[in-house]
Amino acid sequence: MNFTTEHDILNFLYYDYFKREPRVTTDTRRIESGSVFFALKGASFNGNKFAKSALDAGCAYAVVDDAAVAAEDERIFCVPDGLRALQNLAALHRREMALPILQITGTNGKTTTKELCAAVLSKKYNILYTQGNLNNHIGVPQTLLRLRPENELAVVETGANHPGEIADLSRIVQANCGLITNVGKAHLEGFGSFEGVVRTKTELYADLRTREGSLVFLNADDDILANRVAGLQTVTYSSTGRSADVEGELIACDPFLRYRWRRAGGQYHEVQTQLIGSYNIANALAATAVGIHFGVSEEAISEAIAAYAPTNSRSELRRTERNKLIVDAYNANPTSMRAALENFRLLPDEHKMMILGSMKELGAASAQEHSLLVSMALCSGAEAVWLVGEEFRPYAEGCRFFADVDAVSEELRTNPLEGKTILLKGSNSTRLHQLPSLL
Predict the structure, then answer these.
(1) In whole angstroms, what is the distance from residue 359 CA to residue 241 CA?
(2) What is the tens place of the pLDDT at every residue in 244-286?
(3) Closest by CA position to 276, among listed 265, 268, 284, 286
(4) pLDDT tens, 72-103?
(5) Does an H or E element contain 156, and which?
(6) Cut 0.85: pTM above it
(7) Taking CA 330 as the corner, what is the angle to CA 404 and CA 236, rounded to the nearest 5 degrees?
(8) Phi, psi of 270 (to 5 degrees)
(9) CB 168 within 8 A of CB 135
(10) Shortest CA distance to 136 belongs to which of 232, 42, 21?
């Protein structure tokens, strides 16, 4: 089938095909019959090579950016850039699905906040929300292409590790509402500095300013963000006593967060959560503010947050036959590490120890941040601190050092731990999530 431009191809796919068979795939291992295959490329893969295989496996069409591949079959369309074509189709589909979308980003807590917002909004609406951690340049368009006419709201998580990425994703999402959980020291290698992190995250605010009537859910306790929302309508929340639309107070965290909240001037509601860490009160209040704005009842909001149980190694409490574990091994940066260590320090448990994995993508700040983290860990009251990853090696005095998780696993098989409360915290690439079965 011959088309002159990418615009013509996407119009065909959308108007003549995608509306009838709204499915796309980028992986030939997970083909749905009748779907459209988009060939994506990366440092170690080239999807163009698999276009014909995708058709043979049941795809109706394929989109590639290699003219020679396109010549093999009339069902293969050639565009200048396969990823851009996927993103453009998602943006077109989102415009057709004229529903409110909440876009969430931030250094820490964005996935938990997204999950909490989805739980709250689901009490009243048919919603679509980002599954897992599909928050990048590939996952975001895949999420948007799952929008269906029956959806009334969507919650889309967006992540970034270099400048301009939130701006690019925002142009695809075209959100009506935005929420930045916080800004902290993460991906400094890509952003160049902390200020680079702030500029990139607040690209969401800049995008929202281009759409009349846009709204920001703002943590009033975050002065950095509060100073950057000029000209935008806001719904605010606070856990420090500042005046806000939604006000909350910490009651306890032993280890699960218990807090109370109210609308400004209203009656308090107490919530016992399944979230570990006092820092999660901000995430819970953010979801509360979202629910209030969209008309979810106060009782339903509290019920949804109380019922939510974290998964995927995000502040999970696990009890094994021998030990109690706090597993927070999905990601790590200086901000989230400090919060986790401070929360662990406050736990009343006896016989506490830490297994900490190194932090990645910190660039020139890596040495200082790992050194500071070790100092904080040694002052935490833990009976033992185990450090995993080469970034920790120069600062391991007073701790047990392991080059990688395999070395830790071997130690645990030889000398099992028992009767401990253990914090597992580190970047996903350190693979600390493999350890619970040995503890």
Answers:
(1) 33
(2) 999 999 999 888 999 999 999 899 999 999 999 888 999 999 9
(3) 284
(4) 999 999 999 999 999 999 999 999 999 999 99
(5) strand 153-157
(6) yes
(7) 145
(8) -95, 135
(9) no
(10) 42
